[in-house]
Write a structure and sequence with these properties.
10 strands; 34% helix; globular; alpha/beta; ten-stranded mixed β-sheet
C-alpha cells in the first residue's frame, strides 16, 4: 500500500486521517463534508489542533483508503450539492499527503460536488501539481505577510514565507478561487506593516479572491495542549480587543476589500 505519495490503484492509496465531520458551513462555500488529515510540518504558536501534528504512523486506525472515505462522503452528497457545497480537507497540513488527496479529489469531483483544501502551502511543489488540478477552492492560511512575522508564528525558516507566497501565486495562475483566512494575534500579526502587506496581497489577488476572513485569536484550543502535556506558547496573550479588530476591519474596507469577521 502507498501512504499519501506513491503509485497504485485507488484501492491501494492510503492516507493518514485524523478525523471526519459530516457537516460544516464555515470552511468554504455551501455545506462541507470535512476530512482532517494527520501530520503537519509547521508548529504555529496559535494552532488549535496540536493532536494533528504527528506524522508517524503510530495509530493503524488512522490509516484509511480513498474508497473508505469516499463511501462516507457519498451518503451526504444530496446535502452537499446545493450552493457549491462539497468536501473540504484540512489538517494538519493536508497537502503533505499529495497522492491521497489528489485521488480523493478526483473521485469527489465525479460525484458532482466541489473540492476545497485548507492549507498553508508549505509542501513539496510536486504535491501542488498533484492536487491543484482537481481543486475548486483553496482555503489559504498565510500565517503572516512578512518574513519575520512568518518565522515568529511558525517557528520555521523564513524561506518558508517565500514558498507560501509562491504557492499563492500558483493558485492565482491556475485561476482557482481562494478563500483567505488571516488570524489576528496581538503582538504577532496586528502591527501596521502586517496589515499593509495583507492589503497589498488582497489587492494583487482580487481577481480570484472569493473571500477574506479575519479571525480574531482565541484560546479555545488550550485544553488540547493540556491533554497532550504540551506548553501552550501563547498562554500570556489575550484575544484582540474590539477596538483593534475594528481598526483592522476598517483598514480593509477603506482599501475596498470586503471582509468577513469571524466571531
Amino acid at each position: 500500500m502507498s501512504c499519501g505519495s506513491g503509485v497504485g490503484d485507488i484501492e491501494d492509496v492510503v492516507g493518514r486521517v485524523h478525523s471526519i465531520e459530516s457537516l460544516s458551513c464555515t470552511d468554504g462555500p455551501g455545506n462541507r463534508f470535512m476530512v482532517f488529515l494527520q501530520g503537519c510540518n509547521l508548529r504555529c504558536v496559535y494552532c488549535q489542533n496540536p493532536d494533528t501534528w504527528e506524522t508517524e504512523d503510530k495509530d493503524p486506525e488512522k490509516r484509511k483508503r480513498v474508497d473508505e472515505v469516499l463511501a462516507k462522503i457519498k451518503s451526504c452528497v444530496p446535502y452537499l450539492k446545493p450552493h457549491n457545497g462539497g468536501i473540504t480537507v484540512s489538517g494538519g497540513e493536508p497537502m503533505l499527503q499529495g497522492k491521497f488527496l489528489s485521488e480523493l479529489f478526483k473521485k469527489v469531483k465525479e460525484l458532482g460536488i466541489t473540492t476545497c483544501v485548507d492549507t498553508a502551502g508549505i509542501t513539496p511543489k510536486e504535491n501542488w501539481d498533484m492536487v491543484l488540478p482537481y481543486t475548486d477552492f483553496v482555503l489559504y492560511c498565510p500565517k503572516a505577510f512578512t518574513p519575520q512575522g512568518y518565522h515568529k508564528i511558525t517557528k520555521t525558516p523564513k524561506s518558508n514565507f517565500t514558498l507560501s507566497q509562491e504557492f499563492a501565486n500558483q493558485v492565482a495562475q491556475r485561476n482557482i478561487k481562494m478563500w483567505l483566512r488571516f488570524v489576528l494575534v496581538p503582538g504577532y500579526t496586528d502591527n501596521e506593516e502586517e496589515i499593509d502587506k495583507l492589503i497589498e496581497f488582497c489587492t494583487a489577488h482580487k481577481h480570484h479572491l472569493a473571500q477574506v476572513e479575519l479571525l480574531p485569536y482565541h484560546t479555545l484550543g488550550v485544553s488540547k495542549y493540556q491533554e497532550l502535556g504540551i506548553t501552550y506558547p501563547l498562554k500570556d496573550v489575550e484575544p484582540p480587543s474590539k477596538e483593534l479588530t475594528g481598526h483592522v476591519v476598517a483598514r480593509l474596507k477603506e482599501a475596498g476589500i470586503d471582509v468577513l469577521l469571524s466571531q
